[in-house]
Amino acid sequence: MGSRNNFTVLTHVTVWSLLGFILLFYPPLSWNFSVPPNFWVKQALNLVIMIGVFYVNALYVAPRLLFEQNGKVMFGIWLVGVVICFLVVARIIEVNLGVLADMSKVANKGPKDPYRLDFHLFMIMLLVMVISTSLAMARRWQADAQTRERIEKQHIASELSFLKAQINPHFFFNTLNNIYSLTYSDIPVSREAILKLSRMMRYVLYDTLSDSVPLQQELSFLKDYIALMALRLHECTTLEFNEPVSGRDYRIAPMLLLPFVENAFKHGSSAMQRSRIVVDLKVADGTLSLRVFNHITHEKDDYQLDKGGIGLANTRKRLDLLYVDKHTLMIREEPEEKTYEVLLTLQLDHEKVGQIAEPV
């Protein structure tokens, strides 16, 4: 943080040094006569005043007036008043230092009218105020953008918490009913199902509190979810699940893949007609590829995957925030064939993904 502040100060000093030299000190050097020392003192004082007015306007006046509902008129008055006051003060300094008389002597010209507008100085001061106001506006827009991004991330985090809360009771009780039925027919399978459910609840309640989790944990959660959902499938629905093979572990945002798989089970299973659900996961060279395919077994008005709830709309937001330029998402729907397919590619990181303020 200290080095960054030093860099900012150095940048401001460098810019002002160049600006002052180009606008105030370089032009007199090209004149065909030598200017008196008091002229350089006057130019230096003008530069100091400009710098002071620049930062007062950028840091205090413009942010308080320019962005207020009724402050634009006051800011216009301030802008005009500052320029006029500067020209008056600059002329007073010029007269008190005797610059006008000394310049007339060295230039072999008549005395300059002290009430005449110094157009060159007027344009420089106007330029300074324009840059100062632009800086204030840029700072405000940047702050607003950061605020919107922070609110959006908090909103996404809240939706993620809602997703966890939604999974807990709904999925938990449905799975318990299935396990209860299994205790009458297949005790070993029921025990394995209880173990899977326990792992899933631990992952949802504790492991997903961080911004990112090891990919293997996310895949284990997804595998347990698919295995438990398979207990509810009827004979008409065929399930294909291809697990990824990866020798290295990566990190991924928690519960990022679940909505795609959840939608497939929700809208692709049927007890009356033949349907197929495919979940294909691959990890290669730091890139995760997910393909989820399912037949649509409900009318279109019933599923509307992108409307309401947390579903794909929320997942799109999370991908856009956490994996900027690191993912591609393609959704293909074939109404005539009644099929729905999701294709996601994601560049994985060893480090943590973008920060989200998770509510605890």
TrEMBL record:
<feature type="domain" description="Signal transduction histidine kinase internal region">
    <location>
        <begin position="159"/>
        <end position="235"/>
    </location>
</feature>
<dbReference type="GO" id="GO:0000155">
    <property type="term" value="F:phosphorelay sensor kinase activity"/>
</dbReference>
<keyword id="KW-0472">Membrane</keyword>
<feature type="transmembrane region" description="Helical">
    <location>
        <begin position="39"/>
        <end position="61"/>
    </location>
</feature>
<dbReference type="Pfam" id="PF06580">
    <property type="entry name" value="His_kinase"/>
</dbReference>
<keyword id="KW-1133">Transmembrane helix</keyword>
<dbReference type="InterPro" id="IPR010559">
    <property type="entry name" value="Sig_transdc_His_kin_internal"/>
</dbReference>
<keyword id="KW-0812">Transmembrane</keyword>
<protein>
    <submittedName>
        <fullName>Histidine kinase</fullName>
    </submittedName>
</protein>
<dbReference type="InterPro" id="IPR050640">
    <property type="entry name" value="Bact_2-comp_sensor_kinase"/>
</dbReference>
<keyword id="KW-0418">Kinase</keyword>
<feature type="transmembrane region" description="Helical">
    <location>
        <begin position="73"/>
        <end position="93"/>
    </location>
</feature>
<dbReference type="InterPro" id="IPR036890">
    <property type="entry name" value="HATPase_C_sf"/>
</dbReference>
<feature type="transmembrane region" description="Helical">
    <location>
        <begin position="119"/>
        <end position="138"/>
    </location>
</feature>
<dbReference type="GO" id="GO:0016020">
    <property type="term" value="C:membrane"/>
</dbReference>
<keyword id="KW-0808">Transferase</keyword>
<feature type="transmembrane region" description="Helical">
    <location>
        <begin position="7"/>
        <end position="27"/>
    </location>
</feature>
